[in-house]
Amino acid sequence: MKDKLIYFLELTGLNWFVPLVKLSTGDSPKHQLQEFGKMVGVPLFAVVVFLMLWHMGAAKVITSLGQVPGPTQVWEQVNVLVDEHNEAREREVAFYERQEKRNAAKLEKNPDAEVTIRPYTGKETFFDQILTSLFTVFVGFFIATLIAVPIGIIAGLSDTIYSALNPLIQVFKPVSPLAWLPIVTMVVSAVYVSDNPMFEKSFITSALTVTLCSLWPTLINTAVGVSSIDKDLINVARVLRLGYFTTVLKVVIPASIPMIFTGLRISLGIGWMVLIAAEMLAQNPGLGKFVWDEFQNGSSSSLSRIMVAVLTIGIIGFVLDRITLSFQKFFSYDKNAVIR
Amino acid sequence: MDKYLNIDHVSIDFPTPNGPFRALENVNLKIDKGEFVSIIGHSGCGKSTVMNIVGGLYQATEGGVVLEGKEVNDPGPDRAIVFQNHSLFPWLSCYQNVELAVKSVFGKTRSRNEIRDWVNHNLELVHMSHAKHKMPAEISGGMKQRIGIARALSMEPKVLLMDEPFGALDALTRAHLQDSLMDIQAELNNTVIMITHDVDEAVLLSDKIVMMTNGPAASIGEVMDVNLPRPRKRLELADNPDYNHYRSEVIHFLHQRHARKVA
Fold first, then answer.
1. Which chain A residue's Cα is nearest to B101?
2. Which of A3, A31, A40, A330 is 20 to 30 A from A237, alpha carbon to alpha carbon?
3. What is the spatial distance between Cα B51 and Cα B193, in angstroms, rounded to a whole number?
4. In this structure, is the dihedral angle defined by the CA atoms of residues B52, B55, B59 and B64, taken in order, positive or negative?
């Protein structure tokens, strides 16, 4: 039970709690307390030092929007944003209630009357925007994975295809999302024409920009992983006369899973970073748009609200990385490999 | 031509920036069914190349290999290979490693139960039933090589090819595995080609020792029949004059007549 719990904690990257678990089962208390202090105490101390430096430094810089916000002002804005979200939800509920009442009254007068429920069109709250951003990045990342993994496998298996693709990969890899965006916008406007669109154009544009930028690490890592498979393992497949697809499925993919996941992890990180810039320009209603709108708004609380967004982006990025790390550890056959 | 396995005037060139490099020149060898043949020579003399040609992993530039009247052009389970570094799939358990081989060779002709029994039988043969659900990373090097042998045997090969199968193991483990291999050989009477650079191993296990000259353009220097009665016992052989004679023959070949020019 204890070992299983520790394995789970290590798998999910919650190593901080491992000493606590060991402590609770009476496993050399002194040593475990030391471990806990090292894993939790030291980082905690560093955070406190950072907050203090931030507090003191911020007070010294005066911008046209007033003083640069310190940790206290930012925390205030966190509360404001939560309140705004709750208020918006109440308004939404009230809006639907009003409609239902009105419709009920209409139907009472005339049972054949046509009634409709109109959707609530209030402004998105900060938390709606987080969800939009997450959904956008996942769609972009998902498309990137669908493209990058198969191409990476084919390129890794054939030197000819690899050398054909390599210059393209090297040229497109360093391109900034801000350079892709105008092109993607124009192409989406031209191609994605529909009277009743399922998705907003801004969403498609942002997601595709994420795809274009997060494709490369997965592609390169998959290709390198596939091409560096032990030759003898491929020879075993040849001796067994496995077909091309069986070899890929039973030998190539399992052997290169660790490298594929390393690539996916880097890709998701890049995708999340790119997304914010893409949303700013494409006006996709996510965190990027939030930052842009606050910047244009220019009220005395704008900088604090942008800082809330910055911290949120950072924390979500960290959590996403931990999740992919857990997947990486789970799918890797070499459980002893050190993965950071 | 009527032998079981016929390595017929095989030469091979490898392309290099300075033109083709002739690794083997005119290698000619005939092997009977059920014979245990060792190929011995200094490192880099092309022993493994011979085996890879028989295995179908390399194509001979000249000449060819004929097995039971059929020419060998590509790799196949009738010439199962035991690799030096075991080459088990690290994401499959020991049982699954053998099962993958059995399924790809007999998947269409045998029932699920027959396949399961056959996998278990082969694991039993190498004394690894107790660890069949362990992952390769969890067992020792000698055990991994046992699984490698079980996987090769499970394909029911016409010729079993072994590329320095015990080269990466410590002396004690190696002796254990050699004894196991002799037991298995007594039971199944396979045709085996084993690459080795260990003189004792070659004399102990083989019916025939093929000694190769040094490369480039390596060829067969001498073929020696080992007429020691089976079953052979390591301890008894230590004082056997015939055994010591065979041993010194091989050592003389390797270290006097064909000593490596660069040490």
1. A240
2. A330
3. 8
4. positive
Each residue's pLDDT tens digit, B73-105: 899 999 999 998 889 999 999 999 999 999 999
| Helix H or strand E segment including B37 | strand B36-40
Backbone phi and psi for residue B85, each to the nearest 5 degrees, phi listed first: -100, 40
What is this model's ipTM? 0.88
Residue A233 contacts B, CB cutoff 8 Å: yes
Are B89 and A255 within 8 A, CB to CB?
A: yes
User: How close is the nearest chain B Cα to the Cα of A333, in Å?
Assistant: 5
Q: Amino acid letter at B21? A: F
Question: Do residue A233 and residue B104 have CB atoms under 8 angstroms apart?
Answer: no
List of chain A residues whose C-beta atoms are within 8 Å of the C-beta of residue B93 = none
Mean pLDDT, chain A, rounded, equals 88
Between CA B19 and CA B23, with CA B20 as vertex, the angle to 5 degrees is 145
Q: Which of B12, B204, B184, B7 is nearest to B82 (CA)?
A: B184
Q: In this structure, what token pair is assigned to residue A308?
A: 């809330």
Residues from chain A that touch B85, judged by Cβ atoms under 8 A, are: 232
Chain B residue numbers touching A334 (CB-CB < 8 A): 90, 137
pLDDT in tens, A236-288: 999 999 989 999 999 999 999 989 999 999 999 999 999 999 999 888 889 99
- Please, what is the angle between helix A126-157 and helix A302-331, to 10°? 40
Residue A326's Cβ-count burial label (10 Å; 0-12, 13-18, 19+) is middle
Number of CB pairs < 8 Å for A and B? Answer: 54
Residue of A230, A242, A333 lying closest to B87 (CB–CB): A230
Largest Cα separation within chain A, whole Å, is 82
**List of E strands, chain A:** 62-63, 66-67
Q: Helix, strand, coil: what percent of chain B each, to 5?
A: 40, 20, 40
Domain residue ranges of chain B, discontinuous segments joined by +: 88-156
Which residues in A lie closer than 8 A to residue B74 (C-beta atoms)? 238
Distances (CA, A) of A41 to B50, B59, B254: 62, 64, 65
A244 shares contact with chain B (CB less than 8 Å): no
CB A17 within 8 A of CB A331: no
